[in-house]
Amino acid sequence: MSGSGEVVGAILILAGAVFSLISAIGNLRLPDVYTRSHAASKSSTLGVLCAMVGTLLYFIIAEGYFSIRLILGIFFVFLTAPVAAHVISRAAYRHCVPLAEETAQDELREYYQQDENFEGEDQVEPVEQETVLQSTS
Q1: Which of 8, 40, 94, 96 could form a disulfide with 126 if both were Cys (CB 3.0 to 4.6 A apart)?
Q2: pTM of the complete model
Q3: Which family does this protein fall into (predicted)?
């Protein structure tokens, strides 16, 4: 019976590694902070969850050991990673981080134009990309 537990665990851990690799590629390739945040939160969360569920199933099937720590880890990763990515993206938008040029629609623009005063005191004006490139040279 331990052979089946090892196979199931190995498949889920391998799937988790593939999702984490896709997340890393997305972080490198995508154009702006918003799409990178999406890649980092969705696929890496799925990758970590697959790896942890694979580990949990391996220990349950092969060893007969149930780990509450793995269950808590799965719960907290599933809860915190997407929420953190959403908060980071919203903070970036509120601080006027520019969208990618390919962006087709900005649904938050009308919402924030109605409320001209953002809640944050440290609002930053949008910076032209050429100015940033000249200052780093």
Answers
A1: 96
A2: 0.70
A3: Belongs to the CPA3 antiporters (TC 2.A.63) subunit G family.
